């Protein structure tokens, strides 16, 4: 079957994996990657697919409503996978307006353009899909009931749910009440509401998924894992916010991309799915695993880089624990994460160490000074 898909934010971290997967897996689909190329967007992430006949790139801002109308009509778009967003919590604390603009108004602009175009066609919304990629952070924060004494769960699978309850009493479910705390999560929550409102009001066939923290190749090094791998490599301090006890639930990015493919094709319209692999880690435990892995891969003696750990002032409003329950996705669509965490971390560290040129390219700007006034050593 032929389709014309618009993937927004395809030059970013997750978007580039989604674009690569769709371009390679569906030669009959025309994939239009629309991206503004902010500091986080990088076409070098897609070098391997840029010459494929079923791939197009359009540089545009999703807030530009006229441009969205034009692109949808020109490429006769029948499916949208919407990832374009401002995505970093620390930036949202410094500059919340940009997050409201792109994440809320940009999403609305795309929704409205899609509505106008699809409603103008004889078949209307039939065969159409607006798939919005969201985050578990919209649910707020869970309590951490056992900050001490839990050994890192080094071998984690989707079936190890009980093990992870050790970090707290509960998970985020699809019907957990939205309770965002950061400007980032508030803007994503607002965009999720708009997407659902377009289904409820106009009948647009929408889907929303809320995924846990992703890790893997091509992530901009202001996020924990790539930043710390790079700093360990260069012997630079590792700024741990607060006590390092916050818990995040990590999923390998290619697993997320594969899930987006599954849900885009098989997910129920107007529904929501949580995506996560029951893989919770306290930041400090994860950081120690990263240090161990980077040191080993660089041939350093064990413990060589432990001294780089530097506790700094905590992030304002720092959410304590995120933990996704993805049982619905597993039961309804037979989903499972493909990668064990130790394998994912091993691959990720290897990729960053082997792609220093990519790292140098994306760190050549002055973003490292962006947070200087926010996080001081304690
Ligand atoms: P990213 O910051 O790496 O990439 C975002 C992309 O969007 C960049 O290519 C950027 O240039 C583009 N963009 C930003 N503003 C734009 C605008 N106004 N118009 C067009 N393009 C614009 O983000 P990511 O980590 O790949 O996240 C992608 C999506 O997934 C986001 O919606 C995010 O909320 C969601 N998400 C991320 C995670 C995660 O752990 N990274 C987890 C769950 C959900
Ligand atoms: P991050 O990668 O920014 O993702 P998110 O805030 O969306 O979860 O951060 C992951 C965790 O690591 C979070 O608890 C904040 C913490 N962190 C640090 O301790 N130091 C850092 O330099 C960064 C970037 C994050």
Keywords:
7-stranded parallel β-sheet; alpha/beta; about 375 residues; Rossmann fold
Walk me through the topology.
Layout (H helix, E strand, L loop, with lengths): L2 E6 L4 H13 L3 E7 L19 E5 L5 H10 L4 E4 L6 H6 L1 H25 L8 E7 L25 H4 L18 H20 L3 E6 L1 E3 L8 H10 L4 E4 L5 E6 H14 L5 E4 L4 E3 H16 L10 E4 L14 H7 L7 H14 L1 H7 L16
Bound molecules: nicotinamide-adenine-dinucleotide and thymidine-5'-diphosphate.
The site of nicotinamide-adenine-dinucleotide has 30 residues, from helix 1, helix 4, strand 5 and strand 7.
Describe this structure in words.
46% of the residues are buried. This protein is globular. It has a single domain (3-372), classed as NAD(P)-binding Rossmann-like Domain (Rossmann fold). It is an alpha/beta fold and 378 residues long. A 7-stranded parallel beta sheet has the order 3-2-1-4-5-6-10, sandwiched between helices. A 3-stranded mixed beta sheet has the order 7-9-11. The protein has a two-stranded parallel ribbon with strand order 8-12. The chain is built from 12 helices and 12 strands. Thymidine-5'-diphosphate (TYD) is lined by residues 89, 213, 223-224, 227, 239-241, 246, 248, 283, 315.
């Amino acid at each position: 079957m032929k389709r014309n898909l618009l993937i927004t934010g395809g030059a970013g971290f997750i978007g580039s994996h989604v674009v690569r997967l769709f371009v390679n897996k569906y030669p009959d689909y025309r994939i239009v990657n629309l991206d503004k190329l902010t500091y986080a967007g990088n076409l070098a992430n897609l070098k391997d697919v840029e010459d494929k006949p079923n791939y197009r790139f359009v540089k545009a801002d999703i807030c530009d409503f006229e441009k969205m109308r034009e692109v949808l009509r020109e490429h006769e778009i029948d499916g949208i996978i919407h990832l374009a967003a401002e995505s970093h919590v620390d930036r949202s604390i410094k500059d919340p307006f940009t997050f409201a603009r792109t994440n809320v108004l940009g999403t609305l602009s795309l929704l409205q353009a899609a509505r106008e175009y699809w409603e103008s066609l004889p078949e209307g919304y039939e065969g159409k899909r607006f798939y919005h990629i969201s985050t578990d952070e919209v649910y707020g924060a869970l309590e951490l009931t056992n900050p001490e004494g839990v050994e890192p769960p080094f071998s984690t699978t989707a079936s190890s749910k009980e093990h992870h309850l050790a970090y707290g009493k509960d998970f985020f479910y699809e019907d957990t009440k939205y309770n965002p705390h950061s400007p980032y999560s508030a803007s994503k929550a607002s965009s999720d509401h708009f997407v659902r409102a377009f289904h409820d009001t106009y009948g647009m066939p929408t889907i929303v998924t809320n995924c846990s923290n992703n890790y893997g190749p091509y992530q901009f090094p202001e996020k924990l894992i790539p930043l710390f791998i790079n700093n360990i490599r260069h012997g630079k301090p590792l700024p741990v916010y607060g006590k390092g006890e916050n818990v995040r639930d990590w999923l390998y990015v290619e697993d997320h991309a594969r899930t987006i493919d599954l849900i885009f094709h098989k997910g129920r319209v107007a529904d929501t799915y949580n995506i996560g692999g029951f893989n919770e880690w306290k930041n400090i435990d994860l950081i120690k695993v990263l240090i161990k892995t980077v040191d080993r891969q660089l041939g350093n003696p064990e413990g060589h880089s432990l001294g780089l750990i530097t506790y700094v002032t905590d992030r304002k409003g720092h959410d304590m624990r995120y933990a996704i329950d993805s049982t619905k996705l597993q039961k309804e669509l037979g989903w499972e994460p493909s990668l064990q965490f130790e394998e994912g971390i091993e691959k990720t560290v290897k990729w960053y160490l082997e792609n220093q040129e990519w790292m140098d390219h994306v760190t050549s700007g002055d973003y490292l000074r962006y947070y200087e006034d926010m996080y001081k050593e304690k």
